[in-house]
Specification:
Blueprint lengths: L6 H11 L4 H8 L5 H8 L3 H12 L5 H9 L11 H13 L1 H14 L5 H7 L4 H21 L4 H8 L8 H12 L1
């Protein structure tokens, strides 16, 4: 969720994403992941990688939450969610949230299918598909993790990180994610 309250965290993460050693640090952070999770994590764009590493760093005391922090935004597929769509989403969320809700509802109506990946693939490439990915990135990441055999609890945490928390683990992940 983007609010004026978390803009300092976003500025900090943007600064972290500019670090030329980011990818090298990411390889070290990914050591706790399975081979498939490792590849999924390292496929993320620089901003999402920096953000996920910052979230995970605040969750180091719990190995499961730490891994969920690393992977929670892996569904923000670089091929589908470009910088224009990110700025469009953030700008509308901050300035015209009612308009964003209407646009997102229209995109949701056009996306049909059994799962989030199928819904995404129904939409033509472009900003509408990007908005869908932004809205469903947790579920998309969860589907990818489930397909590679990741443990159920990790899949659940990643898939639900933008939903209303149902337990303490979900709440803690959401709070740290929302702060950054």
């Amino acid at each position: 969720m983007n609010t004026w309250r978390n803009l300092p965290g976003k500025i900090w993460v943007t600064t972290l994403s500019l670090d030329p050693r980011l990818r090298a640090r990411a390889h070290g952070d990914a050591a706790c992941l399975s081979p498939g999770e490792h590849d999924l994590f390292l496929a993320m764009g620089r901003y999402d990688l920096a953000h996920s590493m910052a979230v995970a760093a605040r969750l180091e005391d719990d190995p499961l939450l730490h891994r969920a922090g690393l992977l929670h935004d892996a569904g923000k597929l670089r091929s589908e969610l470009g910088i224009f769509t990110r700025w469009l989403y953030t700008g509308l969320e901050l300035i015209f949230p009612a308009l964003l809700r209407r646009i997102c509802a229209a995109v949701e109506d056009k996306a049909a299918g059994g799962g989030s990946m199928e819904g995404m693939q129904v939409l033509p490439r472009g900003w509408r598909r990007g908005l869908y990915v932004q809205l469903h990135h947790g579920e998309i990441a969860a589907e990818m993790l489930a397909r590679m055999g990741s443990e159920e609890e990790l899949v659940r945490l990643v898939g639900r990180h933008q939903m209303e928390p149902r337990d303490g683990l979900e709440r803690r992940l959401a709070e740290v994610d929302d702060a950054l």
